[in-house]
Structure formats: C-alpha cells, structure tokens
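Appendix C reproduces, verbatim, an entry submitted by the partner laboratory led by Prof. M.T., so that reviewers can inspect both the input and the predicted structure.
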Amino acid sequence: MAAPGQQRLVVVSVSPQSRASLAAHFELNPADTARKLTAFFKKIGVHRVFDTSFSRNFSLLESQREFVQRFRGQADSAQALPVLTSVCPGWVCYAEKTHGSFLVPHLSSARSPQQVMGSLVKDFFAQQQHLTPDRIYHVTVMPCYDKKLEASRPDFFSQEYQTRDVDCVITTGEVLKLLEEEGVSLSDLEPAPLDSLCSSVSAQEPSSHRGGGSGGYLEHVFQHAARELFGIHVDKVTYRPLRNKDFQEVTLEKEGRVVLHFAAAYGFRNIQNLVQKIKRGRCPYHYVEVMACPTGCLNGGGQLKDPSTPRKELLQRVETLYSSVRTQAPEDAPGVRELYRAWLQGEGSERAGRLLHTSYHAVEKASSGLGIRW
C-alpha cells in the first residue's frame, strides 16, 4: 500500500473493447487476454487492474432509471425527450460546441463507464484502502482518443483533493506500444488472477453485457422501459435498419400503437441527420444511442489496426471475440446491489446522483486550434 508522501497506488481500468482488440491482435481469447494484461501491468509496477464492465453495470442501471423518469415527466418538459446517450465523448463535444443550448438538455446525465470507474476507484476503492483520492493514480485503457478529453473535463476534477477521477487515459494502440517498448508479447506472459473491486466478489473471468459493442445502452434501456412503463417483457430486441446499418430503429407496440420508439445512430452523417430531425421538431424517437464512430466503439480511433488484414475482416474478428464473453444483466452482477447499499446509500440517493451522474454545458466555439473547449 502507498505510504503517505511516497509512491501512489497505481490502478489500471481496462475497457472490454480494448481487451477484444488486443485479443484479436494476439490471437487469444478474451479471458486469457484479461489475465495476461493483468500480469503485464503488474510486471511494470501497477498495483490493481480492474475491468470497466463492472462500472458499466452502474452506468446502464442509472440510464434505465433516468429514461423512465424522463418519459413519465415528458408532459412537464418539452426537452425531456428524446434522451440522447452521453457515453461517447466525441459526440458530447460536438453536441456542446455545435448545438449547445439546444441539445444539452437532451443528453443523458448518467456517467460513462470510464467516469463511473473514476468514482469507484477514487471514492469507494480509496476508502477501502484507507487512502485519500490523491494517493491513487488511476489509468484507463480505452478504444478512443476522445476519452482523454472526457477525463480532463472540470466536472471530473476534485477541488478538495486536487485530483482527477481518471488521471491518465491510454488507448489500445498505446498499450501495444508499451508492450513493444518493454519487449513483451502478451501471448508469452503467464496469466495472473483478475482483480475485483469488491472484496466479497472474486473475479474468475471477464463478463460483459448484451446489446452490441458500444455498451448495449439501447437494449438495456428499451427492455427495462418496456417492463417498467408498459408491463411488457421483451426477450429479444429486433432492429430495423433504415438508410444504412449504422442507423437502426426499435419499436414497442401495445394494442396496435407504437408506445416506445428507440434508435441507434452511429457516425457523424447519421448524427447530423438526427440533429436536423430534432431541430425541426420531427424526431419520432424517445431514446437514441449515439456514437461518433461508424459501427461504434469496437471501431474506435484508438483500436489496433492491421495493414495485412482488411478493415471489415478485422472488425468482424474483434466483434466475435467481444461477443464471446459471458453476459449478465447489470442488476444481477455480483457486488452491484451491495455497493448501491453500502457505498451509495441506496438507489436514487443524493450520493448516487453525485457520483454516478454529471452535467453538460453549452460551449462557445474556440477561436483557434482544434476548437475543442471543455
């Protein structure tokens, strides 16, 4: 454990998308990749290695609750719907900068898995280790360069302890560079046991969520809303592609009437079409899963490329590996209910609101450089 005034305790949190990309590159299965990655990070001095699938449980559950609340309150607010996901920082940056005051009220306030993990590590885990948040250095491994921007938002900085929830973000590609610099091939490493955030839960193998490579927000929120609002159990979500495979719709009908209308919009061409629909007051959707990258997070800009393999073929391999991991409903994940009770003081508490949600801000365009201002 880190001694006061000396070294900090170093934690690395790995995204399931990065794990799948590395698994494809090294021709490993996701479980072996997770264990060997844990071994590598510990070899270079990391103390704990966690999986952001665990923090995604909280992000999904909070997204479900928020949608139901906003759906029920739509009569009181014209801006309650559609709810637009906010887990993609490239999309959030575009929304805040380009259509700020118009789109920001529609953004979901639920934190992304990366930023929920920031709360878990710097609040819950720090308490368990009897450390202040600034005594932990938290690194995440992500499929996306824009996650660096997300981590640097002032909303995720503690003034009291002068520390960020996530101190450093490295992409999947940067992990490969790190391996190469250390002269290590992931395949050759002896696997190490996986770490668990919850002392009462042993992490035997990685887990994930159904609903695609971007986290499954549409599916989880749709199935929860169908059950909670209309008493309908949806076992399988059926997508209907529209103008292209990156713009798809899902509907729920009751007594011949469409009562829920969801969509997934990936890539900026589809995002721009969606924004125009909202601006014209012609958006039929209650909820939209929005991602800046075509085909979503598994195709993120920080993922591994292979010049010898066609892009589509490589992406298919990554998708297959990603979906081979055992899935579970977020409410059933070991440790989740326990942490809601013991750490967050219950579902819907003030503490849960503070640690699992955030707010977004209309931003004026910067006058020079990239034009990104957070």
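The CA atoms of residues 114 and 284 lie 30 Å apart. Additional entries are available on request from the coordinating office.
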